[in-house]
Design brief:
110 residues, alpha+beta, Glutaredoxin, four-stranded mixed sheet, 4 strands, binds FE2/S2 (inorganic) cluster
Length: 110
């Protein structure tokens, strides 16, 4: 095992997790509600501000327990922010609220 904590503490100030679960069942899932497009919009927004993966990581993740047929679940850590029903058009406002218009405010410390 390698402890990569110091390296990643240096590199990342926040991490956006986007649920892309697509389950074949009667229950709603983010994957069936446009999660891949929402994930791509998150990445594009951060890339446009040179913030993608440093200082803001992005990962697709499995179920966050916020399943909805109306959109995607997202959590931003360590901000401890949780969202459901996110549509691609919601992403700019959501990320601007979390990180500032140019992703200049990435730390959860004010
Ligand atoms: S399927 Fe995405 S939060 Fe449950």
């Amino acid at each position: 095992m390698k402890d990569r904590t110091p390296e990643y503490r240096e590199r990342l100030d926040a991490h956006v997790f986007v649920c892309t679960t697509d389950r074949d069942s009667e229950y709603a899932s983010c994957g069936a509600a446009g999660a891949e497009e929402t994930l791509a919009t998150v990445k594009d927004w951060l890339r446009d501000r040179d913030a993608y993966w440093s200082p803001v990581g992005v990962s697709s993740t499995s179920c966050l327990g916020l399943c909805s047929e109306h959109g995607t679940a997202i959590t931003i850590q360590p901000h401890n922010e949780w969202y459901s029903d996110v549509q691609p058009e919601d992403v700019p406002g959501l990320l601007e609220s979390a990180f500032g218009p140019n992703a200049e405010r990435v730390s959860d410390e004010e």
